Give the backbone structure.
Amino acid sequence: MINRSIASKNGAANNMCASQLVATNTLKLTTNQKMVHEALLALGRSAGAYEILDILRKKGVNAAATVYRALNELAQKGLVQRIVSTRTFIAHQEPKPEDEESILLICQHCGEVSSIKDNHIVRAFDKNIEQSGYCVNTYHLELMVSCDSCAKKTS
Ligand SMILES: [Zn+2]
């Protein structure tokens, strides 16, 4: 199943419902964490720390370290996910459980990110890796793709 709810292109921060606001409020985010999370949600796609910094300069944030610190703290709370392949981040509207495995689909043209939650694929990986005699410490299942709209533009 493809989940396009990670972030929508329509400015997800503006469409947050009351229950989602409660969810992020109970996490007791700092001002910097809130600004970074809202900026990333509003983008509706993955972005790097320096792009987020450029957006937040208007709000008085001038150091990349401030953005990186907020991103790391948001990742620990499950509200931001690091995309290893592109060295970018994507925001979640609600905290993502740590044990939830998904396969990320990243549009290499526009940065839109979707996820597939397919336990069969994850189990197949686990089984094959176990049979090879290795054990997994960490893994990131990320596929570089073209999203529907970018595929139409390039065809
Ligand atoms: Zn795209």
User: Anything to note?
Assistant: The longest strand covers residues 103-107. The pocket of zinc ion is lined by residues 107, 109-110, 112, 147, 149-150 (CB under 6 Å). The helical segments are 18-25, 31-43, 49-56, 64-76, 119-131, 148-154.
